[in-house]
């Protein structure tokens, strides 16, 4: 049986290795995944005594600029039903912004609704069409490289001008994807993408472990942090909506064999898509500080609590 002192060391390791994001529920789930049997109340007690806690989200504001109401718009093919039967059936896209010492920095993300993975992203100092288009190209290039057909894919976004630009819609048409947009000014019509933006702001941008001590200096620092965060989000983060599992594990069983990529059509490769994601920072992987004191065992909860 693992004692409190050893268990607290494991808790600190899990918490640090996951960007300091996890609260007691996810730390408990990760410990169980590692084969460490422990009650959740024990994890809660030790984390509270050690000052460890998870990240909480704040409400985010809308970022994209909409066109006039008189402009013809594609239909909303999603109607707030953010579900998909397979990968590459429905993608959702949105933009968000980050304040830095050098000015505003903007980030574009595209998520696959089935796997919930981020399939494309881009960071820039402008909100021009290229920001959103590069994120789209990353997603399409990666799918093509893996030999996956995206014909019939529904691409859903809000009515931001970046997503309604001619070059963007033409790129979707080249991929045989179908455009879908929500109604003007209604965040619920793109709720999944906006929920990710909120999570990204909390777990990456405002996270004291990720954020430089003096604040974000500029686009370079933000881009490195986003690359690290997306790598962790897709490959290691536990997600409550799929039973504290990892998104990648829901995607791999249905993934097309990479050998099929030899027959895949040539896709435009965005200038940043071939860049490997940066490895986790060494400061997040260091050994935990030895516990100075161990709190008393937790009390057994009564049936009414």
From TrEMBL:
UniProt biased composition (Pro residues): 287-297
Alphabetical list of PROSITE patterns matching this protein: INTEGRASE
Chain spans, region Disordered: 261-305
InterPro entries named in the record: HTH-like_dom, Integrase_cat-core, RNaseH-like_sf, RNaseH_sf, Transpos_IS3, Transposase_IS3/IS150/IS904
Ranges of residues in domain Integrase catalytic: 83-254
Gene3D superfamilies associated with the record: Ribonuclease H-like superfamily/Ribonuclease H
SUPFAM superfamilies: Ribonuclease H-like (SSF53098)
GO MF annotation, one: nucleic acid binding
GO biological process, one term: DNA integration
Free-text function comment from the UniProt entry: Involved in the transposition of the insertion sequence.
Matches recorded under NCBIfam families: transpos_IS3
Protein name listed in UniProt: Transposase InsO and inactivated derivatives
């Amino acid at each position: 049986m693992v004692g409190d002192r050893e268990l607290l060391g494991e808790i600190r390791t899990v918490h640090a290795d996951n960007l300091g994001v996890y609260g007691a529920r996810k730390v408990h789930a990760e410990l169980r995944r590692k084969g460490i049997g422990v009650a959740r109340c024990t994890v809660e007690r030790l984390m509270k005594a050690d000052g460890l806690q998870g990240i909480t989200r704040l409400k985010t504001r809308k970022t994209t600029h909409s066109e006039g109401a008189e402009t013809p718009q594609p239909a909303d093919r999603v109607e707030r039903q953010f579900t998909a039967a397979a990968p590459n059936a429905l993608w959702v896209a949105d933009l968000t912004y980050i304040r830095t010492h050098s000015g505003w920095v903007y980030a574009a993300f595209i998520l696959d609704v089935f796997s919930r993975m981020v399939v494309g992203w881009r960071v820039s100092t402008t909100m021009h069409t290229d920001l959103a288009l590069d994120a789209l190209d990353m997603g399409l290039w990666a799918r093509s490289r893996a030999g996956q057909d995206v014909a019939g894919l529904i691409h859903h976004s809000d009515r931001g001008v970046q997503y309604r630009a001619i070059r963007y819609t033409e790129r979707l048409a080249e991929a045989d994807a179908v455009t879908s947009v929500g109604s003007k000014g209604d965040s619920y019509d793109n709720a999944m993408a906006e929920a990710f933006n909120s999570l990204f702001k909390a777990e990456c941008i405002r996270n004291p472990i990720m954020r430089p001590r003096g604040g974000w200096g500029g686009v370079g620092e933000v881009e490195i942090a986003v690359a690290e965060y997306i790598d962790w989000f897709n490959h290691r983060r536990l997600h409550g909506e799929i039973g504290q599992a990892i998104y990648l594990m829901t995607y791999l069983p249905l993934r097309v064999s990479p050998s099929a990529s030899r027959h895949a059509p040539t896709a435009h490769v965005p200038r940043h898509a071939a860049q490997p994601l940066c490895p986790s920072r060494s400061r997040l992987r260091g050994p935990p500080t030895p516990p100075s004191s161990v709190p008393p065992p937790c009390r057994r909860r009564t049936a009414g609590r």
